[in-house]
Description:
Elements: E1 3-6, E2 9-12, H1 17-46, H2 52-67, H3 73-93, H4 99-105, H5 115-139
Antiparallel strand pairs: 1-2
Amino acid sequence: MVKRALGARIVDSTMDEAAVSPRFIACSVGLAAVVMVVFAETAQAQVPTIDIQKTCRAAASVMVNLMGGSTSQNDVEICLETENKARQQILKDWSTYQASDREGCIQANVYLPSYTEWLTCFEMNKSVREARQQRGREMIGLTNPDGSVTMPSVRSLGINMRGGDRY
């Protein structure tokens, strides 16, 4: 049994787990919360801040020009809500986005930026990558050793190419 002085108390290092566990759990939860806050702040620091008021007013104005009539405050509020939700999703998923996607999708100084547009860009890039991976698996049997691709015969696709049916 090892005893050591901790302040004015003597602490027994062989304390049973029930006495140590709550303290350990509380410290672990506190540490986890700090780590989560640091990661969230890191993502927030990397995602540019957009003036969504400006973006939403401009979007509402464009709709007025396209559709005629006048814009309502409701249109702007719906836009603001959508933009805020998109920003929260981007912050939540920031660590899962590839660096090339972050660089390609977030162009804050090139056009009137939108979190919704950025989120759509991230989702589209992910979908394209997944489709290319799937296509790559399907193409394995068609790729020749020299890298060229041999397409399947027309007959294997169920197309009957008789002499009179040529295009």
